[in-house]
Design a protein that fits this description.
With 174 residues, the protein is mainly α. It is 71% helix and 0% strand. It contains 7 helices and no strands. The chain is elongated, with a radius of gyration of 24 Å. It starts with a helix and ends in an 11-residue tail after the last helix.
Length: 174
Amino acid sequence: MPDEQSSNTPERQQDTGYDSSEDWTAKWSNVFRLATGRMTDEGTLQWKKDRDDKNEEADCAKCEKNRDYLLQYKMVHAYDHLRFQVQWEDNLRHAACSEIRASTLSGECRWTREFWTKNQWKFTQQLQECVRRRATLSVAGRPYCKDDVQAAKVVNEVWDSCFSDTRPFDEVYR
């Protein structure tokens, strides 16, 4: 009888392809099985659930760390939407201006954050380059934008007025 129980465990692991043990070989075996398609849907779901459970504390800490930036960023968008009646869907200039303002005013492009977490190791013009990069990426992802060139052109058209606009704040948070 003990032989049947011990043989059921490996057979069950082979059925789903998921190995729940904690050693490093099992972790890499699971990744390999998933990548090569040798893990069933049930095994994949169990692997994702276990991985999420193990990383939950670290993930929550990351969210708490970035919460203030995200809230400030979204509040600038909300202010722009209510105050300036931004046309998000079809006016790329409005979207670009709001993205420039949100990245500038939220502190998301502060020098220390970019230097230590994004490996942007410049001492001059770092804020401007970060804001321009983020605004261009955001505009390029909109459905009415044709390509990256058009996104960069739109961001450059509104740059001077939007980068210097700090409403509703008195100054840029650095």
